[in-house]
Each structure stands twice: as C-alpha cells, then as structure tokens.
Amino acid sequence: MADTLYHPESPDDLMPRELRAEQGREPAIQARGLRKTYKASNGQPAKEALKGIDLTIPQGSIFGLLGPNGAGKSTFINILAGLVVKTGGHASIWGFDIDVNPRQARGSIGVVPQELSIDPFFTPAEVMEMQAGLYGVPKSERRTMEILRAMGLEDKADAYARTLSGGMRRRLLVAKAMVHNPPVLVLDEPTAGVDVELRRQLWDYVKSLHAAGTTIVLTTHYLEEAQALCDQIAIIDKGAVIACEPTETLIGRLNEKKLILRPSSPVSELPAALSGYKSEINANGSISINYNPAEISTMDLIAKIGEAGIEIADLSTEEASLEDVFLHLTSHGEPG
Ligand code: ADP
Q1: CA distance 159 to 171
Q2: Residue of the CA atom closest to atom 19 of ligand 1
C-alpha cells in the first residue's frame, strides 16, 4: 500500500476525532509564502494567481476563505489537495508538509469540488467503494454506509447516481471526500447555484460534520455564507490575504456605509474634515464617503460637511458592497 494516500500508521487515525482536535498542536493547515504562477499557454499570458499566502487555519475551526472570483481560492485549495503544483513557499496539512510527506498530507484532507462531477452509471455505494480503493482504505475500515447515512443518502445507496437530485449529488460529493476519514474537509464554493432550501440543508450537514470533530474550510464569494458558518474568515484578493480575523471582528469592520452627496456648487477638493475617511469626488461631481455607523452617525457626518462650508443639494446612503470592502481593505494593506 506504499503508493496509497491512506496512512493508518498515523496514530491520529486510531483516535476518535473529538480527541484529535484537542490533541494536536499543529494547525489544521498552514501556508507560508505560498506562490503560484500559471505558465503562459494558448496565447494567454502567465498568471500570478498566488502572491505569497501566509495562512494558519486552526484545528477544529470552520474557516472561511472569502474572495471575489479569480482571487486565487481554488488555486490555494488545489495546491493543498495535490492537484496544482505550487511555484514557491510551504504548506502543511495536519502537520504534514506537502513536499516532505505528500501522501500523508493528501490523506489528511478531503476536498469537495465545485462541479457536480459524478459518474451517472454508478450507485453512491459503488462511488464510495471506488474512492476508498483509490485512497487505499482497507476493506475492514471502510465506512460506506455510515457516511452515506450521515449525509442522508442511505436509502439511495444502490440507486444510479443519475437518478439523484442536485442536492443529493452534492451530498454524495461530500460523502466521497470523507471516505478516508480526513481530519480536514474543504468545500470549494459549496452552494454556488444551489437554491436556498438546499443551501440550508448543506449548511446543516457541514455543521454536523464540524460538531463531530472535522475541521472545515469553506471557499465562497458570498459574505453571507461565510458569516453564517465560519468562526474565522480570511479574505483573499488578487492572490494575497488582505484580512484574517474572527468572523465577528471582520463583520464589524465590514459594517460600513457609504454616504453619497451632491454639493450645491462643485467642489475641487475634499475638505480636511473628511481626511480620516475613505472619501472621493466622483466623476459626476458627487462626493462619496465610506464610514462605520458604529463610529460616527450619519447626522454627525453630515454636520461635519456642513461645517466645512459645503452646501448639500441632495444625499443618499448605501450599504458598502463587498467590493467596497475589498477596496477599502486593499488600500490599507500591502501594496501590489
Ligand atoms: P478563485 O477560486 O478565487 O475564483 P482561481 O484560483 O480559480 O480563483 O483563479 C485565480 C487566477 O488564476 C485567476 O486569474 C484565474 O484565471 C487563474 N487561473 C486559474 N487556473 C488557471 C490555469 N489552470 N491556468 C491559467 N490560469 C489559471
């Protein structure tokens, strides 16, 4: 079994999951200066997808990797899963360095991919058995029915996968990622294109896996999803981590509003009173100011502008979009 991913020689495998989370001192995932540049191909220029990611994901967490499309989330996950070869830096999973102990590292992580890729002519039980074979899980240690039951698929165990609903297929992918009993489960955009009811169901399953001791990493571009599930969130933008904080702290910071006002007469520069805020004069002459309502009320902000001698013809407020937040965080972060 030397070429398989399952590593029963690891003492962690013999230990109940609840204990694993407490026992280990190692983070579930650690990345240091992780880089990836995709080579130029088919007329496409080379792309620097990860620009030196430093990230520590603690054992036992539900960790959100949040970022817009193209930020580098899948690249990060795929490097951990052994599907993409990094260009530089280090990463370890459950204490196993992906270069030094690649099999153990891969054996410590289960990845639920974005797309619903399941062979329609196999039954869920067969899919599970094949995956277990791929990971070298000995027959005596396979838990096909146990996992299918946990995913609410027990009565579909022998049905052709093509007869499963979209939600069931997604749950089968989660089940498949769990065959080798990995302590870390990664869900890549698990609810993209999934309706609200199904999304809730999937969240419930994720929560129950977490309660049973699995460390969960979730990539998403939905703030709401990360907020609902994760105890800690890292924001990735353009291949770099621009924030990594407990969810509550981050949400507090994201709780920004934007005040947009139209002055009665055009202004050429922003008043000094606004220097502490992210504010700008827009192309149409309006002024937008990002502020945190927990720090200053809208009325006080308007008063400040009035004191600066600007007469306001019209105004409106907006919740800051995730994009605003990214821009805001990026402007405070490292250049480039
Ligand atoms: P995310 O998962 O956050 O949407 P990705 O990791 O998929 O981001 O992509 C990060 C960047 O790398 C994007 O600009 C994407 O176009 C590029 N990229 C991803 N995969 C490849 C690939 N196989 N070859 C070239 N560029 C890629």
Answers
A1: 14
A2: 75
- 69 C-beta closer than 6 A to ligand 1: yes
pLDDT (tens digit, 9 = 90+) per residue, 239-285?
999 889 898 888 777 777 889 999 999 888 898 888 888 899 999 99
The whole-number pLDDT of residue 80 equals: 95
Q: Are residues 18 and 163 in the same domain?
A: yes
Range of the domain at 131: 11-247
Whether the per-residue pLDDT at 12 is higher than 60: the answer is: no
Q: What are phi and psi of 186, to 5 degrees?
A: -110, 130
* CA–CA distance, 235 with 66 (Å, rounded to integer): 5
CA 95–ligand 1 middle distance (angstroms): 27
Q: Give how many domains the chain has, as a whole number.
A: 2
Residue with CA nearest ligand 1 atom 25? 38
Q: What is the mean pLDDT of the chain?
A: 85
275 CB near ligand 1 (under 6 Å): no
| pLDDT for the residue numbered 14 | 43
| Domain of residue 23, CATH code | 3.40.50.300
| Phi–psi pair at 330, nearest 5 degrees | -65, -40
